[in-house]
Amino acid sequence: MSYQNLAEVYDRFAYDFDYDAWTDWYEKRILDLRPGAREICDVGCGTGPLAVRLAQKGYKVTGIDLSEDMLRVASDKVRAWGVPVRLVRQDMRALLLPRRVDAIVCACDGVNYLTDEKSVQRFLKCAREALKPGGVLAFDISNAGKLREMGRVGLYGEDLENETYLWQNEYDESTSLLTMRLAFFVREGDGRYRKFEETHVQRAHRVEEILRLLTDAGFENIHVFGGDEGESEGPGGQRCYFAATRADRKDETI
Asked: In terms of CB atoms within 10 Å, which of 89, 147, 155, 229 comes out highest?
């Protein structure tokens, strides 16, 4: 995954995402489990659509992403919205915050980009350590049915006013991996088109696998919205959402 050239056009192709609904949905899950939460870390924040909306609601927000290019766009968005969001470049598998927070959110497929169980384990362990006792971890995954269907259809495309893309997918049932090869054509100021390509890989994690890993990592009070197949019980469609709290362990020092 690179999100390099894609960062500059990402928001223009995500025009049909209802980020207000996503923000409200995640806020409710957090407050249901931790009333009074104020400090939130948005992991895999991308161009910052959730981070700026959470900050606008009055939360103290830190946005984490591995892509410098996505963070550069997010920084522009933070300034345009006039909200205080701290942006940090980090790998979610090595998440490290200067102080613990009330909640961690990882929205819109962040965990799907962790393509093996060990990577998910590392993220969940770091997330637990970054949360206050009783803090909330909330995230979503595109479910197996969605990724399998994307592989079956194979080729997507869209022709917008100044950008065109072709999106070719291959799903490997034996590994549960979806490989997405994207080709973009972006109109430059002189009218010519610039082409760039990126390849992204996502894994179709199963619900029972995520539940086991959450428990092993030290989370409790786990809530699941949606399943491996079909529509989800949250925004975005064909997703499964998880919300859990950090379990307190009497043998550790806080």
From this structure: 147
The model's pLDDT over 154-199, given as tens digits with 9 standing for 90+, comes to 888 888 888 888 999 999 999 999 999 999 898 888 989 889 899 9
Residues 6 or more apart whose Cβ sits within 8 Å of residue 24: none
- Asked whether residue 1 carries a pLDDT value surpassing 80, the answer given is no
Say whether pLDDT at 251 is over 70: no
Q: How confident is the model over 76-95, as pLDDT tens digits?
A: 999 999 999 999 999 999 99
Q: Look up residue 38 and give its amino acid.
A: R
Q: Which residue has the tokens 């592989």?
A: 151
Q: State the virtual CA torsion across 89, 94, 96, 102 in degrees, nearest 10.
A: 100
d(CA 35, CA 46): 27
- Phi, psi at 58, each rounded to 5°: 105, 5
Which has the closest alpha carbon to 86: 114, 52, 109?
52
> At residue 164, what is the residue type?
T
Provide the 3-class DSSP secondary structure of residue 61: strand
The SS3 assignment for 53 reads helix
CA angle 246, 47, 139 (to 5 degrees): 25
Helix axes 49-56, 68-81, angle to 10 degrees: 30
> How many other β-carbons are positioned within 10 Å of the β-carbon of residue 71?
23
Cβ–Cβ under 8 Å, residues 138 and 104:
yes
